[in-house]
Amino acid sequence: MITTSADLLLRLHALGYDNSARDPWWWPHSGTFETLIGAILTQNTTWKSVEVSLDNLRQAELLVPEAFAQASSDILEPLIRPSGYYRNKARNLSELTRTLLEDFGNFETFAAQVNRGWLMARRGIGNETADAILNYACYREAMVVDSYTARLLEALGHPQPDYLHVQSWMLERIEAGCRQVFPDLSLAQCYARYHGMVVEYCKVNRRGKEIDVIEDFVPHFRKS
Asked: How far apart are the C-alpha atoms of 124 and 119, rounded to whole Å?
């Protein structure tokens, strides 16, 4: 049975859901300004749509904060449009990037010094987005959880009432699992790969909003 976060990590890894070929930290182009942009764009849309927007921004040479901050909404909105809510996202990203440069000077200093409180004070950033930026863009020890995580825990018999409770369950006793599965990785990178495994599993084993728990995962559940 899956009774702890460490149990879940070990089982996902044993079943082959660690997609490190995508990126050593799972999120494509981790540790870059592009990751920060992607964390905002992925709100309420699919990653496939985000990739189109990121490709548009890349071709326009706007995936650096100095260039992005100078781009007008007339330039940004059509490029971001494939990700949906493009007016709000363009506005939020412009404000975020300008404030980043005002407060930190460059992305590298931002990545080294920013904290969760600063991120949560920005328009359009909630718990999940803040943790995604901290972990995947800044390489910090922040466990990202999402609707997939919540649904998987519910399917496993561990329902949680909100984001912070899901995150707390995922963090409890996880260090032992990280040392066993990823002995050569930092705790921050283990968190990143762990969240990636949850997403990879749920993308394959879902029916609408429901997550199937396959037979190999927990034997007494029906195989999907």
From this structure: 10
